Known about the structure:
Low-confidence stretches: 23-31, 48-53
CATH architecture of the largest domain: 2-Layer Sandwich
CATH superfamily of the largest domain: Reverse transcriptase/Diguanylate cyclase domain
Shape: elongated
Distance between the termini: 183 Å
Number of strands: 7
Mean pLDDT: 81
Structural class: alpha+beta
CATH class of the largest domain: Alpha Beta
Strand order of the largest sheet: 2-3-1-6-7
Largest sheet: 5 strands, mixed
Radius of gyration: 55 Å
Amino acid sequence: MNTNPTPKWPNADRPIKPLDRDPSPSKSFGEPLEERAAEPPAIEVAPGLACAGRIPPTPPAEPAPVVEAECLSELSIANRALEKEVRGRHVLEHKLALVTEQKDAARHAAFHDSLTGLPNRALFMDRLDHGLALARRHRWTLAVMFLDLDGFKQINDSYGHDAGDRVLVTIARRLEKNARDDDTVSRFGGDEFLYLLMEVGDAQNLASIARMIVKEVQEPCAIQVRDLAILAQINASLGIAVFPQHGSTSEGMIARADEAMYRAKREGTGFAFARP
């Protein structure tokens, strides 16, 4: 016979009370099962799980507006600096072009007649020196023609220097028109012109050229001076010196052509060759 009494749980005789249901969302114990299931538990992701592909990585945060504004400000400063540099370069290029143009104009003025634009005495002498050197080397024939306008003083006295200047310009254009590329026409001073002919033929060929020049000069010059229309008639006397028969230096060739020109003027023949 079992004499040991049946064991009892503590407070087994106390009545069982229902659980209190606290409506506060901070408490989960005592809440209905369906309400607790609606709230998923917070999961703390360990470092490295996102990289392992188990948990989707968190999208990168949007850049701060302050950083974007700073980038735009730096770009604007760089653009303004570039525009300033481009403007400065354009200014320098313009100044360089202006200086080059001024140098070219000064060089042209130093070696050309201001009225007619023809080579002046200095440029003619330089080309004659160079031409004589080539003629010696290649055994060419070279000629210098000295042209003087007859009756030019009467035009100046009758109609004024403006009319005389227009006559000089007209004669210069006619002489240029008949010159070859290798030839040089120069205003030597006043109403005197020099003509350098390279690689000319014999005396007969030179005589034909001289007749043509005199004929061109003698054509009437129609000029306008203020309200006055003038038909100026001018004549020419021309002297010819040939290398090497009449000289071997620039000064000697011009002097011999000048002598021949005065002889043609005295004799009224239009042109004359220098004498040996």
